[in-house]
Amino acid sequence: MIHEVAILNVKMGLEDKFEQDFVLASRFISAIVGYKGHTLRKCMEEPGKYILLVDWETLTDHTVGFRSSPEYLEWKSLLHHYYDPFPTIEHYETVFAKRN
If DSSP codes are grouped into helix, strand and coil, which group holds residue 73? Predict the structure, then answer.
């Protein structure tokens, strides 16, 4: 499994609307083959800062499957205008995990 990590800096004053639109946009990403789940978390120390964590079966499911899909265009139109600067997106694979 691949973990996509994106730090999202939302323009000041638009946080509530962003969170509402994020819920709407979630249906588009979750429709993609290889999608395993996602979480949006809000930073407690910095207003307007969020972290998006998305689990994908493979890297290609995100970089090709999602980004070249009509669903991505919907996601983009709902969310991309909130960001300043545009997010850096990275992908990680698990090397070690322990859960209680």
Answer: helix
Question: CA nearest 86: which of 3, 8, 26?
Answer: 8
**Which residue, among 28, 41, 2, has the nearest Cα to 80 in the 3D structure?**
28
Q: What are the structure tokens assigned to 19, written together?
A: 């969170």
CA distance 1 to 80: 26
Q: What is the pLDDT of residues 27-62, one digit of tens each?
A: 999 999 999 999 999 999 999 999 999 999 999 999
Q: Which CATH architecture has domain 2-93?
A: 2-Layer Sandwich (3.30)
pTM of this structure: 0.94
